[in-house]
Specification:
Low-confidence stretches: none
Largest sheet: 7 strands, mixed
Mean pLDDT: 95
Number of helices: 0
Shape: globular
Oligomer: single chain
Number of strands: 11
Structural class: mainly beta
Length: 123
């Protein structure tokens, strides 16, 4: 059974850091693409980044470039989202999702989603 499970969300002060994890099961993680998304309160979900099967990372949202980074540990079957210099506007539910074809902004191309993990940036 294909499954993605996010974890690591927390309450953090502005300027702080968090590392989110996306644990994969039921498929060969090293063959596919994993996207990170977030949904802020009252807003539509937006795509942040995507990591390819060759560990190249694409960042789609300008506001996270230079602050967020994505990595993958195939042995642990986990993809990470390292978030530094967090801002209140980074608050939201963070999701990872599986794309079997390629990295894209198009959410409809991601066919399996995790349940999300809450990140709150507040003093």
């Amino acid at each position: 059974q294909v499954q993605l499970v996010e974890s690591g969300g927390d309450l953090v002060q502005p300027g702080g850091s968090l590392r989110l994890s996306c644990a994969a099961s039921g498929f060969a993680l090293d063959r596919y693409f994993i996207g990170w998304f977030r949904q802020a309160p009252g807003k539509e979900r937006e795509v942040l980044s995507c990591i390819t099967e060759t560990d190249r990372t694409v960042y789609y949202l300008d506001s996270v470039k230079g602050r967020f980074s994505v990595s993958r540990d195939n042995a642990k079957r986990t993809v990470y989202l390292q978030m530094n210099s967090l801002r209140p506007e980074d608050t939201g539910i963070y999701y990872c999702a599986l794309n079997r074809g390629y990295c894209t902004r198009d959410e409809s191309r991601y066919d399996k989603w995790g349940q999300g993990t809450q990140v709150t940036v507040s003093s």
